[in-house]
Amino acid sequence: MKTRREFIETAVKAALVATAAPPLMAGTACSTTAAAKAVSVPSLTFSQITLPYGYVALEPAIDALTMEIHYSRHHAAYVKNVNDAITAEGIAYTSEIEFFANTSRLSAKARNNGGGAWNHNFFWQVMKPGGGGPPAGKVAEALNATFGSFEKFKEQFAAAAMGRFGSGWAWLVQDNGKLKIGSTPNQDNPLMDISELKGTPLLALDVWEHAYYLKYQNKRNEYIANWWSVVNWDEAAKRLS
Ligand code: MN
Predict the structure, then answer these.
(1) Which residues contact 177 (CB under 8 A, 6 or more apart)?
(2) Predicted structure pTM score
(3) Which CATH superfamily is domain 63-241 in?
(4) Is omega for the bond preceding 60 within 30 degrees of 0, making it cis?
(5) Crossing angle (nearest 10°) for helices 137-147 and 150-163
(6) How does pLDDT run across 12-35, given as a tens digit for each residue?
(7) Distance 213 CA to ligand 1 centre (A)
């Protein structure tokens, strides 16, 4: 049988355990929740595609040094920075489509770097060495039907690329079955809910100065004119429905 003293000692020990317990339990509960969250909501991670050709492959339209800096520094930085933003801000979107459809809710860092990550992956794919020339098949038919001729399409696309003041992109998109030409500022793209130009991108041209300044300096018009020789029409065709 316990003495009164033993009873008090036991009660005090129990109280100490009870006092100590809540923080421990809270800590455990917290990390369990975080672990469960990490498992049930895999966060989106952007990555750089492997460049489908070497840095020299698009010469003379795009010089090797520009390609190397553009891919290994500019593009790599956008990818790193958007992933940092996703982690730091706890952005829970699980697909690129969902991420861009909710751009209006994102921070400037997430929006700009997310756009930069996606746009460049797209840009590398819609170019290839020995590309260019007029497209064939359904792309040719669609361009002719919408713009009158391939030459007229090129004129309108080049005008969009020239007319973008400062940094941005020119695009050919398909929106509800219709082809449209337009441009976006900064690293915005037509998948973003905040974009005036919307649709499925078929073709894109980066008109940031970092894309052409080493070779062309202020002559954006010459960069655009030469860029037609590396367009990969097969990629545009894949995306045209
Ligand atoms: Mn760029």
Answers:
(1) 241
(2) 0.83
(3) Iron/manganese superoxide dismutase, C-terminal domain (3.55.40.20)
(4) yes
(5) 70
(6) 444 444 444 333 333 333 344 444
(7) 11
